[in-house]
Predict the structure.
Amino acid sequence: MTCRRLLRCTRPFGLAVAILLVLGTGAFAGVGVWTLTGVPLTATQYTLTTFTLTVTDLSLLDEIGCVVVNATSSFSVSSVGVGNASNGRAWVGSHTSTTFTVQSLDGGGRLQAPASLTFTVDATPLASGIHAWSAVAYRQQDCSGTAVPGVPAVTITVLTGTPTPTPQATPSVTPRPTPQPSGSPMPTPTPTPSPGQTASAVPSVVPSASSVASPRPVASAAVVNPPVAASSGASAHPPAQPPPPRRGPRD
């Protein structure tokens, strides 16, 4: 009788516990507790900044294999650096100009509470003001399937800055081509001798020994004997006259 009364008393209690467990499990699974934190939370417009973010899984029922963060068009993302998670498994990262993704290389690297992953993001703020980076987590490491419940975000305050001026390109100077000489070259001028200085003539042709003509013999003229003076006591003879020239047959 006592046992029967005890069972009757415990039945409502057991049913209530079962209902609480079912409701509690569904409620906890729906919360999907995981966090995304980052530093620094303040940056300057137009200044490249390295942000360090940490994803932590706090749910005993959900695993995280991929996280996608939207930095919005107010930031220009240039690189993502990822190491190993706290469970020792490797993760990798990728990015576009406004979003970045970190994911496990395999299913064994998924984050299970209280595992976490820390990574860095290089981004340049393009607009001043307060901006929220929203994030979505997935169980599958290829970022497919149903997202893990939860909407963590990182809020960053961007101070007004001055854009860096773009350096002007220095124009290159093209050297002018060297002009090519046209026509015949000018003759070298002959130096003019100064007054009182005689220029020596240079023979144009040196006669060879064979070109020199041999002298012709010259006929000797008739020798005319001069008159001999008469000595004292001798008769003087008239001087001899030269013979008359010969005449030809026509004379």
